[in-house]
Amino acid sequence: MRILLLEDDRQLGPWVAGGLREEGHVVDHFTDGKEALIAAMGQDYDVLILDRMVSGLDGLSVLKSLRASEDPTPALFLTALGEVDARVEGFDAGGDDYLTKPFAFVELSARVNALGRRRDSNGTSTIEPTTLRYGVLSLDLLARRCERQGQVIDLMAKEFKLLEYFMRRPGRLVTRTMLLEQVWDMSFDPTTSVVETHISRLRSKIDKPFDDELIRTRRGEGYVFGK
C-alpha cells in the first residue's frame, strides 16, 4: 500500500515509517502538516496515519481539509490524546480509526492493513506500477534499472531513490525539506548539502548527456521534475 505518515517525533516517525517499509509498503513520511496536506491532495494514498499534535497544521486540521474536498482515503489518528472527547473529535473529523500512544507496532500494522482492506473492498485501491515512465526515461523498480532513450544509466542507491521520488511527482514542486525527509529520513538541516550534491550527480547522469533537462531548479523553492 501507499501510506502517508504525518508524525513529527524524531524517533517515532522514522521508526514507524521504517517498520511499514519493511512490510513492503511505500511510505511518505512528513513532519510538517502543510506539506502532508499538499501531498495528500496531489496524489492517491491507500491509508493516512496522522498525529494530532504536530506543530503548525495538525493532523486533525489536515483531515478536515481533505474531507472537505471529499477525499475518502481511510485515516488513522496516531496520537497521545486518548481521552473520550478527543477520540470523538477525531471520528467526527472523518477519522476511521484511532490508536493512542504508547502502542505496539504489530497493532498499528494490523489496523493499517484493516483500513487498506476496507479501501480494497470499496474498489478504490490502485495498483502500484513496477516501472515508472516519463517520456523516454524509464525506471524499473524491480530490476533496479534506469534507461533513457534506450541507454542504460547506472545509478547509486540514493540516486535511484531520489529519481523515483521525482518521477512519482512529475510537474510538482518538491522542496529540499521533502527530499531530506523522504529520501534520507532526515529532519530539516540547513547545514547539509547532501540534497544538492546528489541532485548534481543525478543530473550529470540523466540530463547532461541528453538534449532535454528533466530536473529544474526553482530558486528559493525547490525542484520540479518534468515539464
End-to-end distance, in Å? Answer: 28 Å
The Cα radius of gyration reads 18 Å
* Domain count: 2
Poorly predicted segments: none
Order of SSEs: EHEHEHEHEHEEEEHEHHEE
| Biggest sheet strand line-up | 2-1-3-4-5
The CATH superfamily of the largest domain turns out to be Response regulator
Largest sheet: 5 strands, parallel
CATH C-level class of the largest domain is Alpha Beta
The count of β-strands is 12
CATH architecture of the largest domain: 3-Layer(aba) Sandwich
Q: State the helix count.
A: 8
State mean pLDDT (0 to 100 scale): 88
Helix share, percent: 25-40%
Secondary-structure class: alpha/beta
The outline comes out as elongated
CATH topology title of the largest domain:
Rossmann fold
Which range does the strand content fall in? 15-25%
Describe this structure in words.
This protein has eight helices and twelve strands. The protein has 227 residues and is α/β, with parallel strands linked by helices. It has two domains: 2-120, Response regulator (Rossmann fold, 3-Layer(aba) Sandwich); 131-225, Winged helix-like DNA-binding domain superfamily/Winged helix DNA-binding domain (Arc Repressor Mutant, subunit A), CATH 1.10.10.10. The protein has a five-stranded parallel β-sheet, sandwiched between helices. Strands 6-7-8-9 form a four-stranded antiparallel β-sheet, with helices on one face. Helix 2 (33-42) packs parallel to helix 3 (59-68) and helix 6 packs across helix 8 (194-206).
